């Protein structure tokens, strides 16, 4: 199969023809016109969409994966919320079954476990079931599904041992939903923490005498995730993080309300309300309604080039998880592609070379 247009190659956006089957075969430079052809987006923090959320089990996970696929997200980590252990175990088992059964939806890469090992003082919109770190319980979670990322508060008793345990199992521990001081967050990095969850949100704000996790991330963070919906973080703060953190990547943190009309929706055992573009628990933000195609448009509006915005939605998260086959358009990589018009609206989505959304734009 071939597509013609402006292709985001490792060397940048180039006009030409892209040839692919399941994998990318070749790129042929040519003076052609056409749509933008980008690597499929990779969302490492997504709770739900289309009225369903990951805590509900297999069918809900597959529903949210289909919904986000139509918005250019070709791979994702369904994300849990803080809940009683039995609820989390059921959710993880549903994620595992969806991974095994999935076809026709975004690739499910594993799970992002957000909580329950988080600070009771920084729950944000997380349901009120935080726990102190527990290696035995964490081992049970890892048995239930391939957990790839865990958000935790490093100041909790036993958190550093948990970080070391996760690192030894190839899981990425992230600092988030935390009251940690700069020193406590630094100890987490030294123990093996690899990133920061929704940077700036659910953690102490940056202060010149108490820099906290935000200051540590800006000073020496290798990777961090942020939510570019224009509500969670001011664009200026995102631009600052981009100057400081080489591996800053962007996530949706979308909840069940994404793609749905205003009204109440589940967030674990909470009921939250979608009002306009935001989702709220009282007056607190409760996840987002963001999709990654809208994130791309937002980032370009915030001042990023299309190339950089696209890479921070695909290449950087792929590198963070160590995914060699995804995140780039290059020979041998899986042909997970999103095709966009001049307004950056999704025209087509390809998964492993198969068109799964939109009408063909061949050339």
Number of helices: 10
Strand fraction equals 25-35%
Number of strands: 22
Gyration radius over CA: 19 Å
The major sheet is characterized as: 7 strands, mixed
| CATH topology name of the largest domain | TIM Barrel
Our count of domains comes out at 2
In which range does the helix fraction lie? Answer: 25-40%
Spell out the CATH superfamily of the largest domain: Metal-dependent hydrolases
Shape summary: globular
What does this entry look like structurally?
The protein is of the alpha/beta class and 363 residues long. The chain has two domains: 1-39 and 327-363, Urease, subunit C, domain 1; 41-325, Alpha-Beta Barrel (TIM Barrel), CATH 3.20.20.140. The protein is built from ten helices and 22 strands. It has helices spanning 58-69, 85-101, 135-144, 159-168, 182-191, 212-220, 235-244, 292-301, 306-311, 315-321; strands at residues 2-9, 12-20, 24-29, 36-39, 41-46, 48-49, 52-53, 73-78, 107-108, 111-114, 147-152, 172-175, 195-196, 223-226, 247-250, 263-267, 270-275, 278-281, 284-288, 337-340, 346-351, 354-357. The strands form six sheets. Strands 3-2-1-4-20-21-22 form a seven-stranded mixed β-sheet. A four-stranded parallel β-sheet has the order 10-11-12-13. Strands 16-17-18-19 form a four-stranded antiparallel β-sheet, with no helix packed on it. Helix 2 (85-101) packs parallel to helix 3 (135-144) and helix 5 crosses helix 6 (212-220). The radius of gyration is 19 Å and the shape is globular. The mean pLDDT is 97.
């Amino acid at each position: 199969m071939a597509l013609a247009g402006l292709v985001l190659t490792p060397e940048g956006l180039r006009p030409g023809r892209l040839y692919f089957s399941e994998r990318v075969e070749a790129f042929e430079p040519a003076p052609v016109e056409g749509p933008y052809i980008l690597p499929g987006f990779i969302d490492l923090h997504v709770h739900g969409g289309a009225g369903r959320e990951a805590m509900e089990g297999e069918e809900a996970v597959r529903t949210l994966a289909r919904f986000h696929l139509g918005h250019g997200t070709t791979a994702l980590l369904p994300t849990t919320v803080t809940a009683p252990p039995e609820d989390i175990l059921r959710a993880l088992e549903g994620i595992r079954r969806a991974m095994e059964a999935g076809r026709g939806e975004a690739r499910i890469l594993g799970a992002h476990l957000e909580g329950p090992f988080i600070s009771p003082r920084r729950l944000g919109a997380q349901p009120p079931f935080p726990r102190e770190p527990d290696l035995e319980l964490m081992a049970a979670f890892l048995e239930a599904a391939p957990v790839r990322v865990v958000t935790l508060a490093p100041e909790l008793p036993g958190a550093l041992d948990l970080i070391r345990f996760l690192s030894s199992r190839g899981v990425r521990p992230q600092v988030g939903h935390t009251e940690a001081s700069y020193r406590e967050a630094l100890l987490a990095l030294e123990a093996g923490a690899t990133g920061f969850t929704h940077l700036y949100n659910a953690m102490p704000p940056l202060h010149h005498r108490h820099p906290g996790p935000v200051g540590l991330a800006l000073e020496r963070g290798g990777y961090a995730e942020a939510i570019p919906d224009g509500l969670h973080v001011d664009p200026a703060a995102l631009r600052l993080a981009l100057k400081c953190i080489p591996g800053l990547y962007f996530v949706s943190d979308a909840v069940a309300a994404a793609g749905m009309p205003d009204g109440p929706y589940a967030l674990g055992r909470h009921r939250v309300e979608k009002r306009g573009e935001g989702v709220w628990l009282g007056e607190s933000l409760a996840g987002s309604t963001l999709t990654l195609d809208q994130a791309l448009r937002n980032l370009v509006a915030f001042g990023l080039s299309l190339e950089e915005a696209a890479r921070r939605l695909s290449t950087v998260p792929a590198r963070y998880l160590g995914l060699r086959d995804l995140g780039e358009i290059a020979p041998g990589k899986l042909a997970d592609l999103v095709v966009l018009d001049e307004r950056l609206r999704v025209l087509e989505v390809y998964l492993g070379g198969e068109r799964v959304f939109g009408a063909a734009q061949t050339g």
